[in-house]
Every structure is written in C-alpha cells, then in structure tokens.
Amino acid sequence: MALKINEERLLSRLGAVSRIGKYKTGIHRPTYSPADMEARRWLVEQLGSFGHEAFIDGIGNVVGLGPSAPRRLLAGSHIESQNHAGRLDGVLGVLYGLELAQTLAETYGAGGPAVDVMAFADEEGHFHDYLGVRSALDDMTDAERAAVVNIDTGEPLQAALEKAGLAGLPRYRIDPSRYAGYIEAHIEQGDYLDSGGLRLGYVLGIVGVWQYNIVFSGQQNHAGTTRMVTRKDAAMALMKFGAELDRVMGEAAGPRSVWTPGRIVTMPGAPNVIPERAEMLFQFRDLETSRLEAMERALLELAGRHDALGPCSIVVENMSKAPPVPMAPAIVDSFERAGERLAPGAGMRMPSAAGHDAQYVARVMPAGMLFVPSIGGISHHWSEDTRDEDIVLGFRVYAEAADAILAG
Amino acid sequence: MALKINEERLLSRLGAVSRIGKYKTGIHRPTYSPADMEARRWLVEQLGSFGHEAFIDGIGNVVGLGPSAPRRLLAGSHIESQNHAGRLDGVLGVLYGLELAQTLAETYGAGGPAVDVMAFADEEGHFHDYLGVRSALDDMTDAERAAVVNIDTGEPLQAALEKAGLAGLPRYRIDPSRYAGYIEAHIEQGDYLDSGGLRLGYVLGIVGVWQYNIVFSGQQNHAGTTRMVTRKDAAMALMKFGAELDRVMGEAAGPRSVWTPGRIVTMPGAPNVIPERAEMLFQFRDLETSRLEAMERALLELAGRHDALGPCSIVVENMSKAPPVPMAPAIVDSFERAGERLAPGAGMRMPSAAGHDAQYVARVMPAGMLFVPSIGGISHHWSEDTRDEDIVLGFRVYAEAADAILAG
After folding, report:
1. Chain A, 372-401: which have a CB under 8 Å from a chain B CB?
2. What is the tens place of the pLDDT at every residue in A14-67?
3. Which tens digit of pLDDT belongs to each residue from B166-204?
4. CB distance from B314 to chain A under 8 Å?
C-alpha cells in the first residue's frame, strides 16, 4: 500500500517547533529549560492528535505509544538542543518519528503496523550525556543519577527535575520485545554528504571514541638561570610530542579516522617558571576496533619513545574506550534500498562520527540510522541547516524503509 | 690597610637571620609578613650596633647610613624570600653589605671610607617586582602603587603597609651623587659555577627578557564529525609550531641564551571540541641586544611561515622587552682582580640570567654584582644552599673589591 506521506505537515511542524526557544535561525533549548519543556509538551500534544498515548516521564523522556499492532518499530532522537545551536540536531529524528507514526496510522488504520516515538532527554549532556535513553534502558543507577549536576551551572539534576515538574513521575522503561527495531534519523553534522554532493547517509555504525590524558612530568625551575641542557621543560616536551603525534596518527589512521587534542594545560603556568607538568586531553575515533587498536599502539609507541628519550617522563592514562557500535545490517540495507529507489546514486554508506541515542538502543534491539546532509558540515551552532528538499527526501526514504521493515 | 674581616660574625649573623621565618632548611618570609618585618627590624638593630643610622622607610626598605666619609659605596639586596624558599637568595647580599659596613668601620674608624646598606622591599614581587628599589629611585607613581595588590591574596599594598606599621612613614630616596657605585652579592641561582667547579661569578650584566603571547586562531568544531583535512585545530597548530620553535631558537641562540614556553592554554578546552584558540606565553633571555633581536627575528620568521602555511592564523604579540643591563666594567674588573688574588682561577665572568635590584640601581650609578655558587643550581626552593667556605670566600672578594673601589 502506498504510504500517505504529507510533506507539508512535516515542514509545518518543523517550523512550529523551531519557534520554541528560537535563537537567530536556530534554537536555544537546554535540557529542562522552559523552552525545552514547552517543546516536550508540544510533542505530547502532536502525538496525541492522532491517537498515540503520549506523556513525559520522570526523566523528561517524551513517550508516544501507538495502538496494538502486529509489528512495531521504535523511532526517536532528542528534542533539546546544545546552547544556541541548530534547529534540526535531534529534532529532525523526533519529527520524522512523529510524522511516520501518523503516516502509518493514516495509511493502514487500526490493526496495521505501528511506530512508537520517543524523544530522549539530554542526549546533548547539559546534565549528563544520554541521560534519557540510559534511564529508559535502566543503564544508570539511582546513585549515579543523584550525583548528576548541570555542567554549566552546577544545579543538581534533582532540583532541575523539580523545577520542570518532573520530580516523582515514574521513569519509562523500554520493553525491547515489543519492537522489530529502532530507527533514528539525524543531520550528518559533518560534511561528507554536503561536500560530496550527496543527500542520504546510510549509517554503518557509530564510531568508537578512545580518550586519553597524556601527562608530561619535568622539573619546575627558574626560566632565566636554568641552562637549556639541564632543563626538563614539560611544555616543550608536550609540544614536541604533539607535533609527532599528529604524524604517527596520520600513518595509523584509516580514511575516516579523526584525532583531537581537546585541551592542553601547563603547570604552574607562569612566564618566569619552567613548567614542571603539562597535560594533553587526547581522543581518536574510528568505526573499526582494529583501527582504534592500531592508533592506540601508535600513541603508546610514540609515548614510550619520547619517555625513554627524556628529559621529561610521559604517562598515557586511558580515560575511556567507548566501543564502535555497528548498526543492524538489515536496517542499513532497508535504508539503502529505499534511498536507491527514490534517489538513485544520491546516498552512501558511512559511519557516524558523533554519538547518538541509537548507540544505546542498539544494545537491546536492531538499530539503524539515516543521515541527511548538514550544509557546510556545520554542527552545534545556530547556523546549522539542511535544505527542505533534503529534509523531505530523507523522510520519504526513512518512511519507505520503515514500511519495508514492518512488512517483515 | 688590611681589612679586619670577621668570618665568624658573618656566619653567625647568617645563622641568626635564617632562624627568622625558618622553613625546613630554608625560610618563608613573604614581604610584609610578621617574619619579614622581624628580619627587617633585626637588620636595623645590627646596623645600629656599629653606629649606622638605620631605619625602615614607608615602603619597607631598610636603610643604613654610615657616618660622613670621603668616599662611599651603596651595598644591598633584599631580605624577604619567595614562599618556602632558600635562606640566601637576597639575604646574602644584605649580610655582605652589613658585614662590609662594619668591617670598614672597624678597619678605618671615623673619617674613613664608608658603605651605606639597603635591603630593598619586595624584590621577589609578592606585591610587585622591585617595589622597594623603584620607590627609592622614584621610578613608580603613587597611582601605580595604589593599584598594587598581593599576587596570591589580592590584599591591597596599602592595607599590608598599614598592618606592617609602615603606612605614613616617608619613603627614602637614594641620592646618587653620594656614591661611587652600588655593589650587590647574590647566589647564582643557576648551576654554571657549581657544575663548572667554580666559586666566584663576576657579573657582566643582567640579561634582557623579551616576552610574547603567541596566539593561534583556528575554528571550533565537532571533534568527531569534522574531517581531518578541513580542520583548523589551534592546539595542533601550537604544538607543531612549538616543536619547530625550539629548533629555530637553538639556531639563533648564543651559548647562554634561554627560552621558555611558560604557559599554554587552549579554548574551549573540551574533549569533544576542536580547539579554536590556543595561546603560548613565551620568553627568551640574553645579555646581548643583538642576540635578542636575532631570536625575535627567528620567532617572527617561523610564525610568518606557519601563518602562511595555515590552516590556523598566528599572531605574535610582544608583551615586554626588558633590555639587558650591563654592569659597570670598572666594578666587574675590581671583583675579578680581588677574586684572582684570593682564589686564582676559581671565578668566571658571566651574565645574570635572573633579575636583581642592581638592574634598577645601575640606572643612576655604576653598579656591579658578585655571584657565589648555588649547590646544584637550585633556586626559589627551601633546599637552595651554598657551602660556608664559598660564602666566606665570596665575602672576602666582595670586601677587597669594595675596598679597592673606595680607594679610588
């Protein structure tokens, strides 16, 4: 049966939700802020308008449950934004889910396949990355949640939930047995699609992120009287290491690997004092574990070499190793088949270099993601945007793929 | 006439003053602290014990004026310490001056040559580098002084002076016409003497210090989704520049030049964000202006090259250019002649790589400095020390040189 897709309604809803917490051409909707809560209530209302049972749970997740159905998908993403950021990051996936749920309801009526919709709270981590999806998967303890505070203001999570009227509400738990799978659409955030003239990204998986703190220890001394040959200058050691690190990472990297020295600090940090300590926060990302392992080997080998060479000692502390999360091949295939049918040659298989709620949901059910282009690859900035025709094409591909998955 | 040198008294006084604010084997006497004021009062008492007119002035300078004399030297240094620092840094020069004044009084009696002694307040800059000597030379305005606060606590200078009982006292002004010159002894703070097995440093001058803030501007972006080829990573640019900077400085440097990247900061400094800005506080020192100029050329040439290469822009902001301050050749010669007579081959001509009160006094009269070794080159740490035999030899050379200068 041909899906009764309503492009105007999709774009009109996108326009409506973009006015909530509007900032320039983007939005400013930090988690649990009045604007964020207004957007959540708006979503509940939209989901209810075609018969979904919709509510906000005790962590702020918006849940929209369809009627009983022979086969069912879960669709979602997040509706809060980074500070002064784009109107589509997260929101697009939620609106695709909302629109898909209504499209299926209008196409098949009662007793047909259905889609439940969720907007997971705080994927963006104003309080804690993936707070909502981890609550819905029971992946976080009460004690862990009790320690969470706003990263900018220090406000405890509990206080923010009370202010938002969410304290004491039950937290919704996903029942994986209910679903054939989870789908999430998102803007790419990078520029592989946009710079390649492509319109659809079939996400193979979400890259692993390995993080390190690299510590250089030297000796604090007088910046005037200490001879160059006797110095142990930790800042100088860090810079020499960093310049080579870029080279060895380039050699170990795959075509899509990325690596970033996010922060450098030196101690004591005075003009007349040779730094005795310097630290670099360093991370790299790739979809392949073997590649991440090769990059780690290159990092450790270089650190060992510089440490042995002196004059400063180098310690590489691993801080985290978030593993790559592959998407379910059957869902990747469904997106690609729908894309090739509707826009032949306009899509590519690609990793997601950013994290998404899907990486958590993938633990309990088959999950897949579809990307639409970000103009210029802009992300986490109010000027982030995507062309309407790409938004509409993306939805058609998303809906056709979902329809095919639900047809089994 | 042979000088009536009293080595035991010198060492005994050093022992006495080291007990004021004692910290481990060093001292903790921040400027205007109770311990610092006690040391200043102790010095006034010692100066008065052989007839000098001694007092503490309105900025904390201790002034000891000898009787009328046909020829007169000014001798000094500072008596406060860095936090938890050595017992000799500054104190040695003050005690040499004190001992010299008494030695001359005891050797020549009334009507002979004399030495005035000063302990300049806050050379170490707990409030402001060279606060005392600049006051004595009228080199600082009331408005400048009114803005001075403690660099650790933020306490205004005026409040500290009140607490120390100094507020309202007149500030003493040096009359240069009174003196044949200024002499200052100091521990070396570096390890040229100690590592070379030498015991005396004849200071040629105090190095110039040129300081820069080097700013790297890139583009803030997502550390996952931004391709390596499109990145403008300011931290990476800084590290590549810094590694090369060390090399080009080495090429432009003279045998005693030093260069230090005292502080590095990156912004915004988050693990998942490519830094858009990185800054390096950088300084270099040398005794020769032509050498400083060559080092600056090398810095600017490298910055220009990296800036042109991209992807980040580089701006080099000069923050200060303290010029080298040569010591008076006649005083250098006097120290060297006395040293060669008392300990042939045990000394060397050398620059001072650290700043001293002498660099200010040199503006108004011939000035010279004598160094004794620091064991292991340790400085600004309580474990700083010098052997008693080097302290005694240093004083003998200092006194003989002063005697020769006063003999005209």
Report:
1. 377, 379-380
2. 999 999 999 999 999 999 999 999 999 999 999 999 999 999 999 999 999 999
3. 999 999 999 999 999 999 999 999 999 999 999 999 999
4. no
How many Cβ atoms are within 10 Å of A64's Cβ, its own excluded?
Answer: 26
pTM: 0.89
Instruction: Please state, in angstroms and rounded to a whole number, the distance separating the CA atoms of residues B353 and B342.
Output: 26
Whether A278 and B262 lie within 8 Å, measured CB to CB: no
What would the pLDDT profile of A190-234 be if each residue is shown by its tens digit? 999 999 999 999 999 999 999 999 999 999 999 999 999 999 999
> Whole-angstrom Cα distance, residue B320 to residue B322?
6
Partner residue opposite A246 with nearest CB, options B188, B227, B236: B236
| A116-139 pLDDT per residue, tens | 999 999 999 999 999 999 999 999
State the pairing for strand pair B325-326/B208-217. Answer: unpaired
B321 CB near a chain A CB, below 8 Å? no
Tens digit of pLDDT for each residue in A82-122? 999 999 999 999 999 999 999 999 999 989 999 999 999 99
The residue in chain A having the minimum alpha-carbon distance to the alpha carbon of residue B243 is: A240
Q: Using pLDDT thresholds of 50, 70 and 90, give the confidence band for residue B271.
A: confident
> CB of B262 within 8 Å of any CB in chain A?
yes
Q: How do the domains of chain A map onto residue ranges?
A: 7-206+324-407, 208-322
For chain B, the C-alpha Rg in angstroms (whole number) is: 24
Q: Say whether B269 and A257 touch across the interface (CB within 8 A).
A: no
- Do the Cβ atoms of B222 and A259 come within 8 Å? no
pLDDT in tens, A337-384: 999 999 999 999 999 999 999 999 999 999 999 999 999 999 889 999
Asked if A191's CB is within 8 angstroms of B224's CB, the reply is no
Q: What is the pLDDT of residue A270?
A: 87
The answer to whether residue B283 neighbours chain A at the CB level (below 8 Å) is: yes
Cα B182 versus chain centre, distance: 15
Q: Which CATH architecture has domain A208-322?
A: 2-Layer Sandwich (3.30)
Which residue in this structure is represented by tokens 């100066």? B47
pLDDT category of residue A1 using cuts at 50, 70 and 90: confident
Half-sphere exposure of B37 (CA within 13 A, CB side): 13
* Residue A349 · residue A368 · CB < 8 Å: no
Query: B7-206+324-407 and B208-322: same fold?
Result: no
Give the tokens for residue A310.
């002196």
Place of tokens 């991209």: B310
Contacts of A353 (CB under 8 A, 6+ apart): A189, A190, A207, A256, A258, A285, B222, B224, B225
Asked if A401 contacts A331 with a C-beta cutoff of 8 angstroms, the reply is: yes
Cβ of residue A270 closer than 8 Å to a chain B Cβ: yes
Tokens of B376: 């292991």
**What residue of B is the nearest CA neighbor of A253?**
B228
Segment B156-174 shows an average pLDDT of: 97
Local structure of A285: helix, strand or coil: strand
The residue type of B289 is: T
With a cut of 0.90, is the ipTM above it? no
- Best B264, B369, B384 residue to mutate vs chain A (most A CBs within 10 Å): B264
Element (H, E) at B156: none
Cα B92 versus chain centre, distance? 13
Nearest-by-CA chain B residue for A379: B222
Q: What CATH number matches the domain at A7-206+324-407, 3.40.50.12780, 3.10.50.30, 3.40.630.10, 1.10.1040.10?
A: 3.40.630.10
Peptide bond into A255 cis (omega under 30): no
Question: Dihedral of CA B51/B55/B60/B64: which sign?
Answer: negative
Give the C-alpha separation, A91 to A322, whole Å.
Answer: 25
Neighbouring C-alpha atoms within 13 Å toward the C-beta of A322: 21
Residue B347 pLDDT more than 90?
A: yes
